[in-house]
Structure formats: structure tokens, C-alpha cells
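Researcher: Quick one. two chains, 338 residues in total.
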Amino acid sequence: MAEVAAEQEVNDAELVSRTQGGDPRAFDDLVRKYSPRLYGLVYNMTSNHEDTNDLLQDIFAKAYRSIKGFRGRSSFYTWLHTIATNMTINFLKKRSRSYSMSLDDLDNGIHHDPDFIEMTSGPDAIREVNLKELQQRLNEAMMKLSNEHRAVVTMFDIQGMPHAEIGKILGCSEGTVRSRLFYAHRQLQNHLQEFLAA
Amino acid sequence: MNNEIHKLLRLKRHEHPTPDYFERFLDEFRERQRAELLQQPTLTLLWERIVNAFPNFHVPRLAYAGVGVAAVILSTVILVSQQGGETGRSSFALNDPTPTVNVLPTGEGNIRMPVSSRSDFPPHYVLEARPVSYESPYSF
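Model:
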């Protein structure tokens, strides 16, 4: 795992260096590599595909403009996620448009997800879960969190980032990340009670 | 209970667009970059070309600030020296060591008129024991 991360950083460093040297194709590779992951981050914070698309364009444009100032003090991954999180939180502070979603956004992979299978067909199956309803309730519950709490939940629970990495991205301590997670989970628990095992 | 929420939230990983969206996204991004490039002022583009022409010529970040400060200091010095020159000219009559000519002897003192070879100087009349005045000599 550590080797993969190290290799990824080497690749990123090379692509960043080539971009700084004026090779736009290197930045294309970075966009290709990070857009699905950043899409997840931004989408789960905004719950709106149009906003996510617009924001993602702005995020990569800003990263491209600022990349000459990137000195490699953190990994490119952390640097890019910091830009994305800050821009998304700023956007959410100003947003007037409400969130929207579509059932089509759920890929077929969810039917093979062990958690989903366990939840819907295991001996402890809580209820017949309607996918659309579940998605709607999850999004509603997420949108009731503060922007900062939603960012932590998105990065930790959905994207599987470690606490330390989240702390670096948000510029806060690991303790703060854990504390935010604790309060966010408690809040989510109230909204998603019917989907949770007794 | 936290683990249950964690499992539930992990299902949101499946909410994502189709893979061809990301290829379209990249095309859109490239187009947007090109459009932004075309909107840039000519001077910015020119500067970028100069910088790109010398890839090994790295200007430290603070160098720009240094050049800016130097430019401000230089322009201040030029302005001050110009103003100083003008002030020097106006007070030239006071300190001018050129010989004076007695024009009209009066009871109060002599009126001295500096003789200057430079024609661009307006004539100055200096009264002894009185400040320099540009007023007409008929006023006293």
C-alpha cells in the first residue's frame, strides 16, 4: 500500500514538473487521474451534478493557474484536495440553488456491494430498501450537516481517507477531524434511524 | 452504531457518472483553457512567451517585488531631483554669487540686480535687509 502511494507520488511529481515546464498534456493526465475522485468529493458535498461539474472545471482551472507555485511541500493529491474542499465550501456558503439527484446516478455496482447485500438480504435485513428512497434519505441527511462536517464525512466515510490526511487537507488537527466525525455521525444517526440495525 | 452509519454512507460511492462523462469533462476543460487563453491580454501572452523561451531562466518570486521597489525608489529620486532643481532655480537669486549692479541709489539701501548670462532666468530684484520679492519695485 505504501509502495503504491509512493509510486503515485513519484508519478504525480513527474506530471507536475512537466506541467510546470509548460507541457499541457501532463496536466491532462492529472485531470484524467483525479477527476473521478474529486467528482466524488464535490458531488457528495453539493448533492448537485450541475454544480459539481461547474465547480470541478473551476477547481482544475485554478489548480492549473497555481501549479507553478506548487513547491511539493505536501503531495499533489493533498494540495489538489485542499483547493477542491476550500472552493466547494466557499461555493456552498453562497449557493442558492438546491440540491438535486437522479436514480440514474447509481451504478449497478451497488447491487454487488457487500454492505448493500448485507443490509437488504442478510438475516439482519432491516427492511426492503428502495434504492431511490435510500439515496434521497442519505442525501437529505448529508445536506443537514454543516459544510465542515459534511466535508469530513465525505472524505472519511465515503472516500475512505485516513484522519491524518483529512486533517492536512482541512488544515486542522486529527483530533478536530475525529471530533467533527463524532458529531456528524450522531446527527446522521437521527436522520437515518430507520435504515440502521436496532 | 457508528459502523452502521459508516456502511450506509459508503453506499454513496456508487453515485457517480458514467466513465464517458470524464472524457467529455476533459474535452470541456481543454476548450475552456483555450478560451481563457484567448481572452488574456497581449502583454501577458508576450511575457509568457518570453518566459517559456528561456526555460532555465528562473526568476525568484521575490525578485519581482525587488524590481518593483527599485522602480518606485528610482522614480521617487528622479521626481525629488527635478523638484530640487526647480527650487534651486527659484532660490538661485539668493545664493547667486554673480556680481550686482547698482541700479538706483536710495536712502534705504541699494537695489541689486543679479546679472546672469542665462536668458531663461526671470530678473530678480533683491533688496538689502529685505526678503526677496517678486513684486514690482514700484510697490514700496
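Chain A is about 70% helix and 0% strand.
Researcher: Thanks, that's what I needed.
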